[in-house]
Design a protein that fits this description.
Blueprint: H1 2-28, E1 44-50, E2 56-62, E3 69-75, E4 96-100, H2 114-130, E5 134-144, H3 146-157, E6 162-166, H4 172-179, H5 185-188, E7 206-211, H6 219-228, E8 233-238, H7 250-263
Parallel strand pairs: 3-4, 3-5, 5-6, 6-7, 7-8
Antiparallel strand pairs: 1-2, 2-4
Helix pairs in contact: 2-3
Length: 264
């Protein structure tokens, strides 16, 4: 009897970490298809960007006021297809809005992974900076949840006018430890998204938006990243919101518009 129990315990101890190691991509990335194409309009352009490995990344550019116009590049969450933002582009204070789905999401090719997404972020920025209708000195990166890690990596490797982070984390490892304290997650995770190591070198102004009732990425994980940020920074708690509902609050959009107006 004791031997059988020991075998069960050993099986769980080995099997659960092994399962997470083998299937962590399915637990971290949730690609979504394009449900409906945004309606055509004069200021909306479909874009296709070649990643470093030749994968085609697809999305939209919503053109703002003036030419060349200031530009916000948006990086979404782990289950977010970004076309919905074409319908709320007027919330971004007249800035152009570049929305490109992660590889494997929407109509973008390939499969997501940490290195791929981080390198794609650089490729998207460099594509935007070459456009004649974009002001290269007025580019802001915005990342939500998973996408905050891409935005931070971009800010550490390119000069940006500002950064907006929504429900950001210091690292995926730290977040996972909070959710799975009984597992050796630091040894198991291949996709670590270590934003904390990059924050001290970033001088771009930061707006950090955190839902007061977030249970997916606790505020403590966001706060650690925020405190490490080198540049000027603003923290905003968005009341009455959780991880998925934060964009439904007026304070969310108002703070983004105010931040962008100040940078323009």
């Amino acid at each position: 009897m004791i031997g059988s129990i020991a075998k069960i315990v050993l099986g769980v101890a080995i099997g659960v970490p092994l399962f997470m190691w083998l299937f962590q991509e399915r637990m971290l990335f949730f690609p979504r298809p394009l449900d409906s194409r945004p309606a055509p309009r004069p200021n909306l352009e479909e874009v296709s960007i070649a990643a470093a490995d030749g994968v085609k990344l697809r999305g939209w550019l919503v053109k703002g006021d003036g030419a060349p116009a200031p530009l916000l590049i948006y990086f979404g969450g782990n289950a977010e297809e970004v076309s919905w933002l074409t319908g709320v582009a007027d919330q971004f204070a007249g800035w152009s809005l570049l929305l490109v789905n992660f590889r494997g999401y929407g109509e973008s090719e390939g499969k997501p992974g940490e290195n791929e997404l981080l390198e794609d972020g650089l490729a998207i920025h460099d594509y935007a900076k070459r456009r004649r209708d974009v002001n290269p000195g007025r580019i802001v990166a915005m990342g939500r949840s998973l996408g905050s890690g891409v935005a931070v990596h971009l800010a550490a490797h390119r000069s940006l006018r500002g950064v907006i982070l929504v429900s950001p984390y210091d690292s995926i490892v730290a977040v996972a430890k909070g959710h799975y304290p009984f597992l050796p997650v630091s040894l198991m995770l291949r996709h670590r998204f270590d934003s904390l190591s990059r924050a001290p070198q970033i001088e771009a102004p930061l707006l950090c938006l955190v839902a007061t009732e977030d249970r997916v990425i606790p505020a403590a994980r966001s706060r650690t990243l925020f405190e490490a940020w080198r540049g000027t920074k603003t923290w905003l708690d968005v009341p009455r919101s959780d991880h998925d509902s934060i964009a439904g609050e007026p304070e969310y959009w108002r703070s983004i518009a105010d931040f962008l107006k100040a940078l323009r």
